[in-house]
Amino acid sequence: MSNSAELRAFVKAAREQGATDEFLVAMLRDKGWPAKDVYAVFAQQYADQTGIVLPEPPGRLEAAREAFFHLLAFVTLGTWIFSIGSIWFDLIESWVPDPTVDRLDGFVTGRISRQLASIIVAFPVFIWATRSILRDQMENPDKAESAVRRWVSNIGLLLTALVFLGDLITFVTVLLQGEITTRFALRCCVVLVLAGAVFLYYSRGLGKSRTLPPVTWHRMFAGGSGLAMLLTLGLGFWSNGSPSSVRVLNEDNRRVGDLHGLTVQLQNKKLNGLQGPPASLAEVGLTVADPFTGRPYEYRRLDGEHYAVCAGFEAPIATGASPAARFWAHPAGRKCFDINFASEPPYPPNYFQQPN
Questions:
Q1: Cα separation, 321 vs 326, whole angstroms
Q2: With bands split at pLDDT 50, 70 and 90, how would you rate the model's confidence at 211?
Q3: CA 31 to chain centre
Q4: Closest Cα to residue 229, out of 239, 237, 241?
Q5: Whole-angstrom Cα distance, residue 186 to residue 190?
Q6: What are phi and psi of 296, to 5 degrees?
Q7: How far apart, in whole angstroms, are the C-alpha atoms of residue 189 and residue 193?
Q8: What is the mean pLDDT of the chain?
Q9: Which residues neighbour 350 within 8 Å (Cβ) at sequence distance 6 or greater?
Q10: Cβ-count burial of 131 within 10 angstroms (0-12 exposed, 13-18 middle, 19+ buried)?
Q11: 224 pLDDT band (50/70/90 cuts)?
């Protein structure tokens, strides 16, 4: 008789003599029997008594699928929550400007566009992933207490708690230093509201409320989030402008970048021996055209030390606080920039920050 058969015979005989399952498991484990073998014998014993074979547990594929939906919901939640906060930060910056800081409209417009796109994509994916999780839990109620769900929920609680603490510490520090401003206070409120919503979502999701079933709670959160998202999208599109206006701004930023690039090329010619502004760009083998109209940018030699580069712009850019913002500000229409050949002009504030 094999060891497994002897073990089964022993367990059967011991149970018939009144030994409890707990005692047998503890004794066999103490004698060195692997837990897997011991529980396999008990499973066979109960299957013989009930006539029902122990069902197989969920496989790794099912566990991986569950982890995928929980992590997808977690990541997309963080994506659209962060994007909402970023848009509100930019709106506060617009409504309560700081005179000491330039508002780079091109950069802000591009940033708001990315955050709007993140919300539009991430929020529906979050709703889909959450609905898949709830549908799976309704079909398999035991998954409501799964380890994956608890791990993801507790990570969400930890991260939001850290954001809470960091925001409060920063707020109190600035308050004690006497530098609190309306703009800073509004930003802190945005962080607290968003972090509080996520914290409440995960903490209630982990709880077992008889008066508020999980599906109802998720629907309430989705409804409130949907309203906040629509408000944010509306204000974001209002601040960002239409896609056509954003396109115009990008084109003007490209023109400013081209003009600056032209001045850099002339500086390189100077390093190679050019003594002063050339009479024309053709004289030094340069030609730069507006990529949207196809017409060359205008160049004029003003005197032995100065020259001008000109372009036609579609929209105005206001003068900012920094020297670069003041230098490259322009109205709608034709604008010429006077350049000192002895020095390179500042980098445009929106250059390198806008997609082509």
A1: 7
A2: very low
A3: 55
A4: 237
A5: 6
A6: -60, 145
A7: 6
A8: 79
A9: 104, 105, 106, 107, 253, 256, 317
A10: middle
A11: confident
CB 274 within 8 A of CB 284: yes
DSSP collapsed to 3 states, the chain: CCHHHHHHHHHHHHHHCCCCHHHHHHHHHHCCCCHHHHHHHHHHHHHHHHCCCCCCCCCHHHHHHHHHHHHHHHHHHHHHHHHHHHHHHHHHHHHCCCCCCCCCHHHHHHHHHHHHHHHHHHHHHHHHHHHHHHHHHHHCHHHHHCHHHHHHHHHHHHHHHHHHHHHHHHHHHHHHCCCCCHHHHHHHHHHHHHHHHHHHHHHHHHCCCCCCCHHHHHHHHHHHHHHHHHHHHHHHHHHHCCHHHHHHHHHHHHHHHHHHHHHHHHHHHHHCCCCCCCCCHHHHCCCCECCCCCCECEEEECCCCEEEEEEEECCCECCCCCHHHHHHCECCEEEEEEEECCCCCCCCCCCCCCCC
Q: Which of 26-30, 60-64, 246-250 has the highest mean pLDDT?
A: 26-30
pLDDT digits 0-9 by tens, 254-306: 899 899 999 999 988 888 888 889 988 888 888 889 999 889 999 999 988 89
Give the C-alpha distances (Å, rounded to integers) separating 160 from 153, 154, 192, 345: 11, 10, 9, 45
Residue 308: the pLDDT is 93
Q: Region 129-145: what's the mean pLDDT? A: 77
The two tokens of residue 244 are 């056509």
Q: Looking at residue 352, what is its pLDDT? A: 39
Dig out the tokens for 296 from the structure: 């060359």
Mean pLDDT calculated for residue range 82-92: 85
Please tell me which residue, 113 or 230, carries the higher pLDDT value: 230
